[in-house]
Amino acid sequence: MPEVLSAPLVLEFPFTRSLGPVQSAFLTGLRERVVLGVRTTDGRVLVPPVEYDPVTAEEIHDLVEVAPTGTVTTWAWNHAPRRGQPLATPFAWVLVRLDGADTALLHALDAPGPDAVRTGMRVRVRWAEERTGAITDIACFEPHDGEPAQPGDSTGAFADPLRGIVAPARLDYTYSPGRAQTAYIGALSARRIVGERCPSCRKVYVPPRGACPTCGLATAEQVEVGPRGTVTTFCIVNIKAKNLDIEVPYVYAHIALDGADLALHARIGGIPYDRVRMGLRVEPVWTEGARYPDHYRPTSEPDADYETYKELL
Ligand SMILES: [Zn+2]
Fold first, then answer.
1. How confident is the model over 33-88, as pLDDT tens digits?
2. 253 and 301 co-located in one domain
3. Which domain holds residue 207?
4. Do 264 and 212 belong to one domain?
5. Please, are residues 231 and 241 in contact by the beta-carbon 8 Å criterion?
6. Model's pTM, two decimal places?
7. What total number of domains does the chain contain?
8. Rounded to the nearest whole angstrom, what is the distance from the C-alpha of residue 204 to the centroid of ligand 1?
9. How far is the CA of 246 from the centre of ligand 1 (A)?
10. How far, in Å, from the CA of 211 to the mean position of ligand 1?
11. Where a domain ends, among 127, 146, 167?
12. In this predicted model, what pLDDT tens digit does every residue of 82-134 receive, in sequence order?
C-alpha cells in the first residue's frame, strides 16, 4: 500500500465585479472618508447599504452619511489572525452600529485583548493611510471615549466615482487525493494513465475516485488505459483566462481514452479549433518535466464510429 499523497493546494483568482449606484457610492465614500447608508422605505438607515429594501424589495437609493463613531452590538475574539485579515495581531470581530445607522457593519476592532471588549462599547473608524475604494479603507475600529461625531451631509455624489472592483479570492487547502488518485498520480509520473475497474459493472473509471458511483462498490483493480482516445464532445473557449498562456480560441474536450468508461477532459492542440469534431482520435502530448499531458493532438487514424463512444458523452 503506497503512502497517500497530501499537498498544499491554493485556489486563487481575481473576482471582478461591477458596482451599481449604491455600492459605487458606498465604496467611493470610504475612499473619501465618508460612510454612507441607504434609507429604506420606512425610514431606517442601512449600513452597509443595499440596493433593494429588505422588507418591500423596492429599489432604494436615498443615500445618507452616518458618523464614523458607533456602538459595538456584538463581537468575537480572534486569537490567531490569518493571512489577509484586517489586522496581523489578535483582534475582535465586531458588529458596529454607526451613529445615525439602524443596522450594524461587520469589521475588526483593534483592542489589547478580549477583556477590553464589550457589547455596548463606543468605537470609531480608523481610516487606512491609503484608500482605494474598498471596505479595507476602514483599517479597523478603535475604542472611542469622546462624543459621537457629527456626520457630514454627503449624498453620495462624488467626482471620479468607482465603477468596479477587483476582489482577490484565495482558498488554502491541504489536499489529500486518497488512495485511488494517489495511484493515478503515481502512474502519471511514469506517463501511464491508470484507472480502476468496478468489480460489479466492470466499468473502468479514469481518473479513479476509489468507488463506482453506480454500484456504490469500492474499486481496486488497476487498469492501464489509453494513451490514445476519442473526442466525445467539446467546446470552443473564446475567453482568455488571466495568467493562462493559451491563445483563444482553443478547444477543450471530453476524451474517452481507449479502455476507459468515463471521459476525462483536456485541451486539444495541433489542429485548427474549427476542425475539431466528435469522434476525432487523439493522443497525449507531454512536455518536459510535466506531471500530466499538456494537451491532446490528433492521430492519423480515421474518426471513431459514434456507436463506440455514444455512452461516454
Ligand atoms: Zn459499478
1. 999 999 999 999 999 999 999 999 999 999 999 999 999 999 999 999 998 899 99
2. yes
3. 176-222
4. no
5. no
6. 0.68
7. 3
8. 9
9. 37
10. 8
11. 167
12. 988 999 999 999 999 999 999 999 999 999 999 999 999 999 999 999 999 99
Q: Which of 187, 152, 113 is nearest to 34 (CA)?
A: 152
| Same domain as 181, residue 145 | no
Q: Which residues contact 290 (CB under 8 A, 6 or more apart)?
A: none
Q: How far is the CA of 201 from the centre of ligand 1 (A)?
A: 4
**Residue carrying C-alpha cell 473619501:** 32
Please, are residues 45 and 102 in contact by the beta-carbon 8 Å criterion?
Answer: yes
Query: What is the distance of C-alpha 161 from the center of its chain?
Result: 26
Same domain (yes/no): 264, 129: no
Residue 276 lies in a domain: yes
Task: Say how many Å lie between the CA of residue 13 and the centre of ligand 1.
Answer: 37
The per-residue DSSP string of the chain comes to -PPPP-EEEEEEEEEEEE--HHHHHHHHHHHTT-EEEEE-TTS-EESS--SB-TTT--B--EEEEE-SEEEEEEEEEESS--TTSS-SS-EEEEEEEETT-SS-EEEEE--SSGGG--TT-EEEEEE-SS--SSGGGEEEEEE--SPPPPP----S--SS---EEEEEEEEEEEE--HHHHHHHHHHHTTT-EEEEE-TTT--EESS--SB-TTT--B--EEEEE-SSEEEEEEEEE-SPPTT---PSSEEEEEEEETT-SS-EEEEE-SS-GGG--TT-EEEEEPPTT-SS-SEEEE-SSPPPPHHHHGGG-
Domain of 302, CATH number, reads 2.40.50
